[in-house]
Design goal:
By secondary structure, the protein is an alpha+beta fold. It has 2 domains: 107 residues, Beta Polymerase, domain 2 (2-Layer Sandwich); 86 residues, no CATH class. The protein is built from 8 helices and 7 strands, in the order H-E-H-E-H-E-E-E-E-E-H-H-H-H-H. The strands form 2 sheets. It has a 5-stranded mixed beta sheet with strand order 1-2-5-4-3. A hairpin with a 2-residue loop joins strand 3 and strand 4. The two termini are 32 Å apart.
């Protein structure tokens, strides 16, 4: 079952349209929106699609402009970012194997929660300012242990520095609390409780 209460109806319809588009075959929904649709923890507004395949960003841009009135914000090799009807949409080649089969729910193909967990760790290790990433890890820790999440990261990103990743998950000085998301579950969750939980879970490693 999809937790459709976490995503605006028009955004959900756009996700379905994009995933039904043959030109976008191979792109999988990832990130906070994929996780919110699976576990229903917070409101999510952006759309992130990853593929393991190379793609021609210029050709994809032309297609999206014609079919969806896509407005380009950024384009590079294997990367295209922009806006459709006020919704941010990101297409990226992310050539790392999926450690678990994708989830297929109500005609939406999403990365598995272990894969999302690994990507969230990778995101925090690279940029620890986004409070939404920490919120997502907090809720993933209700299903997986800290050591399991780190093992997902190591499986997906073989060779990356897991010590740095572990430290990043409990370093909060750069977090922008002003970007705190609208919660669906645990509406009283605070950054203080989030910090205490992550530090406590890490101590069990």
């Amino acid at each position: 079952m999809l937790h459709t209460e976490t995503v605006d109806g028009a955004t959900l319809e756009l996700i379905r349209q994009l995933q039904a588009d043959p030109v976008l075959e191979g792109f999988v929904l990832v990130g906070g929106t994929a996780l919110s649709l699976q576990i229903g923890h917070r409101i999510s507004i952006d759309i992130y699609f990853f593929t393991r395949n190379d793609f021609d960003a210029q050709q994809l841009l032309q297609h999206l402009e014609q079919k969806y009135q896509f407005r380009e914000q950024y384009r590079h090799i294997n990367t295209l970012k922009g806006i459709v009807n006020g919704v941010f949409v990101d297409f990226i080649t992310h050539n790392y194997h999926m450690i678990k089969p994708n989830e297929h729910i109500e005609k939406i193909t999403m990365a598995s929660r272990p894969d999302i967990a690994a990507m969230k760790v990778n995101a925090i290790a690279g940029n620890g300012t986004r409070v939404k990433d920490f919120v997502d890890i907090y809720f993933l820790l209700k299903e997986f242990s800290f050591s399991e999440i780190i093992s997902f990261y190591k499986l997906k990103y073989n060779g990356r520095n897991d010590f740095h990743a572990i430290k990043s998950l409990t370093y909060f000085d750069d977090v922008n609390e002003a970007e705190w998301p609208r919660m669906v579950l645990e509406k009283d969750l605070t950054l203080k409780k989030l910090k205490e939980t992550l530090i406590s879970k890490m101590s069990l490693l």
